[in-house]
C-alpha cells in the first residue's frame, strides 16, 4: 500500500503507541465478547419453543459476526480510520439478510405465536383448508402433518396464521352422522327414532357423555328419512362410523324394516342450546 492509499485510509495526524494498543484491545475484546454472545444466544434459543438447533446456530453465528465487526470498527477508529464504510457495509448486509430471510423470519414469528397461543399441539387432527392430518411436530419453520393415507406434509407457519385453521381434536370429541331411510308405515317416527338412537348408543366407540340422537329430516308416503348423530374420539371417525352403519343395518333387519343406511355429510352445526 503506497503513501497516498495510507493517507486516504487514515485521517491526518500521528498514530501513537496508545492508539495501536487501544485498537488491538478493542479487536481482541470484540472477538472475546462475540464468543460469549454466541453462547448466550444459543442457550436462549435452545429454550425458545419452535426453534430448531440449526436455526438457533445460524442466528448465534450472525450475532457473533456482528459483534466482531463492531469491535474491529471501533479499533480502527483509534487509528484514524473512518467508520462510515463499516456502517455502509453493515447496512447493506442487513438489507440483504432481511430480503433473503424474510420468509424465514415470517414463519419463525408465526411459529412463536402458534407456540404461545396453543391453537394446536402434537397429536391433534387439523384441517388447513388444503390438507387434513395429524400434527407430528411444530418447529420454527412449519407444522408437520401426517395424513390418513400416510403422507407427511410440512405446512408453513405463516400459512396457518393467514388461513382458517380447523382443529378437530381440541374439544376431545367429534360428531358424525349416518342417514337411515326406512320404509314408511312399519313404525311411527317417534318409535323409529328411539330404536335408532338406542342402537347407536350401544356401539363401541360412541361416547356416552354426549348423547346420540335421531333427527327426522323427511317423511313421504314411501319412506321416512332420518339422520342419526353421535360423538366419538376425533381420530376414530371412520372406524366408529363403520360400526354404527353395521349396527343400524342389523337392528333394522331384526325389526323387519326395509332400510338403507349410509354415512352422511354432517348437517349444519348445533345451536348453543343443543350442544352437549
Automatic annotation (TrEMBL):
TM spans (from-to): 20-37, 58-80, 86-105
Keywords: Membrane, Transmembrane, Transmembrane helix
Coiled-coil parts of chain: none
Signal peptide: none
A molecular-function term among this protein's GO annotations: mechanosensitive monoatomic ion channel activity
Organism: Microterricola gilva
Domain Mechanosensitive ion channel MscS: 104-169
Protein name: Mechanosensitive ion channel-like protein
Pfam families noted in UniProt: MS_channel_2nd (PF00924)
Amino acid at each position: 500500500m503506497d503513501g497516498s492509499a495510507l493517507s486516504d485510509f487514515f485521517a491526518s495526524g500521528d498514530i501513537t503507541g496508545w492508539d495501536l494498543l487501544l485498537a488491538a484491545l478493542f479487536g481482541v475484546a470484540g472477538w472475546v465478547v462475540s464468543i460469549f454472545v454466541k453462547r448466550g444466544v444459543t442457550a436462549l434459543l435452545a429454550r425458545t419453543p419452535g426453534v430448531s438447533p440449526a436455526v438457533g446456530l445460524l442466528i448465534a453465528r450472525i450475532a457473533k459476526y456482528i459483534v466482531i465487526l463492531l469491535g474491529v470498527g471501533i479499533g480502527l477508529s483509534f487509528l484514524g480510520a473512518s467508520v462510515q464504510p463499516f456502517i455502509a457495509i453493515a447496512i447493506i448486509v442487513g438489507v440483504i439478510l432481511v430480503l433473503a430471510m424474510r420468509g424465514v423470519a415470517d414463519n419463525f414469528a408465526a411459529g412463536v405465536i402458534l407456540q404461545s397461543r396453543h391453537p394446536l399441539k402434537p397429536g391433534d387432527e387439523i384441517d388447513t383448508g388444503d390438507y387434513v392430518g395429524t400434527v407430528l411436530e411444530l418447529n420454527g419453520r412449519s407444522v408437520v402433518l401426517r395424513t390418513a393415507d400416510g403422507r407427511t406434509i410440512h405446512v408453513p407457519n405463516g400459512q396457518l396464521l393467514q388461513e382458517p385453521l380447523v382443529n378437530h381434536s381440541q374439544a376431545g370429541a367429534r360428531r358424525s352422522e349416518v342417514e337411515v331411510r326406512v320404509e314408511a308405515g312399519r313404525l311411527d317416527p317417534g318409535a323409529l327414532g328411539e330404536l335408532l338412537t338406542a342402537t347407536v348408543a350401544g356401539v363401541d366407540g360412541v361416547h356416552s357423555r354426549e348423547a346420540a340422537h335421531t333427527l327426522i329430516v323427511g317423511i313421504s308416503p314411501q319412506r321416512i328419512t332420518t339422520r342419526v348423530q353421535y360423538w366419538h374420539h376425533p381420530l376414530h371417525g371412520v372406524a366408529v362410523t363403520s360400526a354404527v352403519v353395521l349396527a343400524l343395518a342389523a337392528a333394522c333387519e331384526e325389526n323387519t324394516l326395509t332400510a338403507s343406511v349410509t354415512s352422511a355429510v354432517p348437517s349444519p352445526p348445533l345451536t348453543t342450546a343443543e350442544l352437549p
